[in-house]
Design brief:
single chain; Phosphorylase Kinase, domain 1
Length: 343
């Protein structure tokens, strides 16, 4: 058995898998696919090249509520077989003695993750509009699902999603930030005073964008990934998040400036809004508020990461922990201000 990466206890995990996945050919190899401050994803390959995927919390600074493996596994299990493509669930381990933390295993989905501008530019031009259309259509399909009908009706509170989000992220700043951010507080007041009426309640992915999806060879979405922020509530927050991450803004900085959809051929954010509107019955007249909210929310997240990174609290993830904070908190806050002024 090859040396396993940090976060994997190879023999106990192998034993656990052998009991649950018929036909595995030993030995197994484990390779880190994605790391950082988010949940860790590993590719598991047996001697016959049969592949699985294992997800577990990061090995450094961990907020249990943000890294709930059981919650993630419950979500993909509920969505498997619906119109929303997800990796097939295989098993959940909540026994920390096996691997030091809970983990779950799912099937390996063939395809590619188009992570950044270079990858987006490398895609065949004819496939780019197909990818954008499938990305929007998949989000519409997710938002059309009845949470109760798929077994996710108790995943979270359905009402007052935006008010709860505003309180949550404001509390993180109040309790964690070590500096004064007057524009952030002013924007919170303006957002809180103008929350649009929620149009029903649906499943909110929480971080929906192209690089959180697996793309098939034909340009369609093969699987939606990274469900760690999923909850119930106002689904227009998802659409607004995708608009923010589309990268249309010529002044975009950091990670937003490096998104794949900035490449020519993926279309504009206005075009994806138009496609969503054509397939959904929801009123998008207040979408600008949600885009402003997403800028403000990401500024809060970035500030939290900056504080933890500066304090050395990210453990062995310090090399990548400040990625989101490097987006530029001032840029995000000014973006929120611009979107609010358009309303």
């Amino acid at each position: 058995m090859s040396v396993a990466p940090t976060g994997i206890a190879p023999q106990p995990v192998t034993d656990w898998l052998v009991e649950r996945v018929p036909g595995l050919t030993l030995p197994l190899s484990f390779d880190l696919i994605t790391g950082g401050a988010s949940n860790l994803t590993f590719r598991v390959t047996d001697a016959s090249d049969h592949r699985l995927v294992l997800r577990r919390p990061p090995t450094g600074h961990v907020l249990a509520s943000a890294h709930d493996m059981g919650r993630e596994y419950r979500i993909i299990s509920a969505l498997h077989g619906t119109s929303v493509p997800v990796a097939p669930p295989i098993g959940l381990c909540d026994d920390d003695t096996v691997n030091g933390a809970p983990f779950y295993v799912m099937g390996f989905v063939e395809g590619s993750i188009i992570f950044d501008l270079a990858a987006g530019t490398a895609v065949e031009p004819d496939l780019r509009p197909v990818i954008s259309a499938s990305l929007v259509d998949t989000l519409v399909d997710l938002h059309a699902l009845d949470p109760d009908a798929v077994g996710l009706g108790e995943l979270g509170r359905k009402e007052d999603y935006c008010a709860r989000q505003l309180r949550r992220w404001k509390r993180q700043i109040d309790e964690g930030s070590d500096r004064d951010l007057p524009l952030l507080h002013e924007l919170h007041r303006r957002l809180d005073a103008t929350i649009p009426p929620q149009q029903g309640a649906g499943i909110v992915h929480g971080d929906y964008r192209l690089d959180n999806c697996m793309v098939d060879h034909d340009g369609t979405i093969a699987a939606v990934l990274d469900w760690e922020l999923c909850t119930l509530g106002d689904v227009l927050a998802d659409l607004a998040g995708m608009v923010m991450w589309w990268g249309d803004d010529v002044d975009a900085r950091g990670r937003i400036a490096d998104v794949p959809t900035r490449a020519e051929g993926y279309g504009s954010a206005d075009e994806i809004i138009t496609r969503y509107a054509a397939r959904s019955e929801r009123d998008l007249s207040t979408l600008g508020w949600y885009v402003a909210f997403q800028h403000w929310r990401l500024a809060c997240i970035s500030e939290g990461v900056r504080v933890r990174y500066a304090a050395g609290a990210m453990g062995d993830q310090e090399g990548t922990a400040d990625e989101e904070s490097r987006i530029g908190i001032d840029y995000l806050l000014s973006g929120a201000d611009r979107w609010l002024r358009r309303l």
